[in-house]
Fold this protein.
Amino acid sequence: MRLEVRGIRVAYDGVPVLEDLTLSASPGEVLSVIGPNGAGKSTLLRCVDRILRPRTGAVLIDGKDVAALDPVRLARVVGYVPHAETRGFPVTVFDAVLVGRRPHMGWRVGARDLQVVAEVIEVLGLGHLAMRDVTTLSGGERQKVVLARALAQEPEVLLLDEPTSSLDLRHQLEVLGILRDRVRATGMTAVMAIHDLNLAARYSDRIAILKDGRVFAVGGPEVLTPANIEATYGVKADVVRHAGGLVVIPAEPA
Amino acid sequence: MSVSGERGTGSEFVRDYEHHVARRRRLGAACAVGLLILAGVSVSTGVIDIPVRQVLATLLDGGGTRVSAVIWSIRLPRVLGAVVAGAGLAVAGAAMQSVLRNPLGSPFTLGISHAAAFGAAFAIIVLDAGTLGSTPADAVVLRSLHVVTVSAFLWSLLATLAVLLIAGLRGATPESMVLAGVALGSLFTAGTAAMQYFADDVELAAFVFWTFGDIGRVTWNDLGLMAAVTLPAAAYLTANRWNYSALDAGEETAKSLGVDVRRVRTWGMMASSLTTAVIVSLVGIIGFVGLVVPHMVRKVSGGEQRFLVPLSALVGATLLLASDTAARTLFAPLILPVGILTSFLGAPLFIYLVARGREFW
């Protein structure tokens, strides 16, 4: 489904965080949202999933304003992987993923719910951990469980806030690879806030650079130019072409 | 988006998971059978022993014998009272822990028990509802028990509303609820202490007697009242089990799964506080059941909300019934208030659960 963010403004305690931000993403596309701390990346994702409500502007999914959808209907369409949320009491990995079916389930867990959960666990390589307690897992494994939960939700728009922040090198590549394959295979729309510019360059179809609550630049990975990086992050960097992609090599704070 | 199921991948996880669920169901069934047997034993034992076969016969055809009078007016209300109070306190504790996402959630942490004690003290000392009298059995009873009960209930209701109101100002977060509860708890403790200071010795004795939780006070009417709050509360919490599971995964996660976090929290608190308030005001303070039972259930069955509420109800009922039966038979003819026994039992049990490892919270 097509996601459109139209001129939203958000302020925390009177301090503006998003100012007249407009952005869109198409089905089958991974859009990375990058920018320095405080640029408004997480706030943008929260507005799309209506965890925050913008003061002005609108978020449209397939032309429909999310503000008008009822919460369960919205949850069937939009999935969200928050950044580092602490969970309460421990449950098994299977149960932690099964919660993602909540918007689709009635009173009982259906056969299809179990099938979807098992499939997602398989895809993320969590099979050997399915009956393990989530609190005994490593940070990377837990992050995968959270992603699995969001995928089990079968959303058409998936929002991810720093999905690779606690992952080691191998898990980063695995998780983003799986995400990109899922997006391609299912035609969902993924919007991901991410700090690592090289991962963004490698796994995104498009990149939006945020600065001070506005879109500074948006386009293919080629928007990662030394000029744009210096203007938004205040860092001098080289961008080199390597193996068909772009690699950002930071030099020093400008 | 759809997931292709043709490859049959992951079917072994589904099988594992279904075994896992079936084990929980068997555990629940075993608890239920155990509770039934215990109830039979409990009705048949006491000052006069009545064989279980005779108990069943009496229950089936009523009868007007002396034995049936003992069963219908003494044993049965007491046994059912322990079952309902135990189930209610355990379910309320489980709900509070889920709502607050805090393993310390219980009627004590939230000041509800303190408020009930304050209400009882208020009725006994200020309203003069509690002069002591002697029964033929040489036990002390409170004369105007109804006034004490109503006062205890109203004050605990007030505490509940205050917690919800204070928490509501700050967006009903778990932290604000716990802090508001702790603050109210110490306020009510201070109030109780102040009244005790000015009370005479008879009033003081009456109040102390009230605080010993005792199932022996339960009448058929009380039983109806306790069931009338416990059952709807348990039903509400069971119906919302997926919402509480989602909340357990995190607040933003729950919101993204379509859960109205604020409403689920407020109603969960309301249901569990009301249940606690009714039970505590009718039977007095019975410690540790609300705190320990949900932890025992989590330890054995894992943390899933789906099983937590029904299993907590069963285990809570069993624990309180077993304790009450022990309390009235161990030192016969002396009958101990069960509140003292549960506290003795609960504290070491809780320390054991804590020492055995943090893995369950």
Observations:
- Chain B has one domain: 82-360.
